[in-house]
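PROTEIN DATA CARD
Card holder: histidine kinase
Chain length: 562
Origin: Belnapia mucosa
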Amino acid sequence: MRGLLALAFGLVALLAVAGTTLLTGREATIQAREDAIETLHTFARGMADRLDRGMFERWRDIRILATDPVLSNPTAPLEARRAVLRRVQESYPDYAILAFIEPGGRVLVDSRKLAEGADASARSIFIKAKVRPVVEDVHEAIVLARLLPRQVDGLPPRFIDIAAPVISDDGDLVGVVAGHLYWQWAEDIARQFREAVGPVRLIEPMIVSSTGNVLLGPENLQGKPLPVAAALPGPARWPNGQEYLTTSVQTRGYLDYPGLGWSVVVRQPIELATAKASHTISRIVVNGLLAALLAAPIGWLLASWIARPLRVLAATSERAHLLGDDVHFPSGTAKAPYQEARTLAGALGRLVGGLREGQQTHAMLIREADHRLKNSLQTVAAILVMQARRTNDPLARSAFDDAIARVRTVAEVHRALYRADGLPGEQVNLCAMLSDLCRQHAAAALRPGIEIECEPSGSHMLEGRRAMAIGLLVAELVTNAGKHAFPGDRMGTVRVALSERGEGLELVVEDDGVGLAEGGEAGTGLGSILIGRLARQAGGELAIASKPGQGTRVVVRLPQAA
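Structure generated from the sequence above:
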């Protein structure tokens, strides 16, 4: 029971850990994903706002520049206009170049003196900017790339173009002021946001154009359309086969800056996004296993406490089959500390008490039956004696004498059982019964000059049925010895012995009489037939040994239980 309860406690703890891990792990994973998506959304919203505000500042720069008195003065010298453009560029180095274009489309002056004289009349941004301020999305400038210093990564530079019309005080179009903004400006913003969250979390921001192309992002995606499923909020599998948590926020412009319709898409590997949940689950598993290991010895101790009174009850029950007076079931609080054990002890005590009383009553009835049967058999023997006296036929008289002797033998066995049965139930002290039987039978069945020696050793308890058969067997053997072993006036001794042999008993009835004649056989008369049957009823094995002039020895080997 202790082992079973300890195992049960451990299994319950393990099941609790497994259930808690499954439920808590699922909830923790869902919560971790929601928290990670919220973090990514905050990241994307902050970056989108930063892009909108940054573009608004550049939009404002160009619009303010378009109202500068020098640029709006049709007669202003070129050098004065270049100085204005250079001053703005120096204040914000992310401008690649600033230019003033005359209404006809020729670049009149620029901040770097690189494109002066170039024709921009066909450029869409110039055409639109003659009417209103305009911003043009990211693009590569092949011609300008040859004029500007080479970038560190060696890739062609990309620009955002912003332009606005320059109007004179009279309301006439003086020209267009345009600025090429390095795309590096947006890359710096993305880098700053990545550094803010740290490199361990591997959060990757991307800028996607209004047409769905990746403007800024991983090299394998840059310039390509972004899969729609990849940009949906939540877990998604990307073209590289890896699963990410993803979210996106669309830029909306700022104040009078209309915006370019960009979207900021942010992704993070899902295993990193849920790393905290995985750590929590691991802690739950470890703590649960420790709890299970702790539950097993607790279960063992508790089982010992539960099993202690049950062990006492079991040991007492093991002795209770004897129904002795010393068998008492513990029912006190100390020996039976919980109600169920006390109730069981009381029930077993009452049961054994009732069985003991019934056994005593049964034993009393058996003893009384033995006594009355002995008296009845003695009456039968007396009647047979009276009948034998009226018979003159020698054969009939001999048969009557044999019958009388056997009836008296049965009566003597019942008297021996009556006197030997001193314990409750049908258990008989075989040695005491044989001693009493020998004393009583010697006087009735043996003539003077023939002595009987009874040497049973020990105290061997047998059930009454087997004891009866053994008693009748001994009585028949003693009677046969008295009749046939000592013819005439021959004297001698009949010895009855009982001893232990191995795991059983050995009963010996022997005499020092004449023995069997040479070539004679045992077992042909009624007495021999009775002896064989009685030996089998007692569960024993019969062996007869005899030599002329050396007596007869009968050995019966009996098992302790049959």
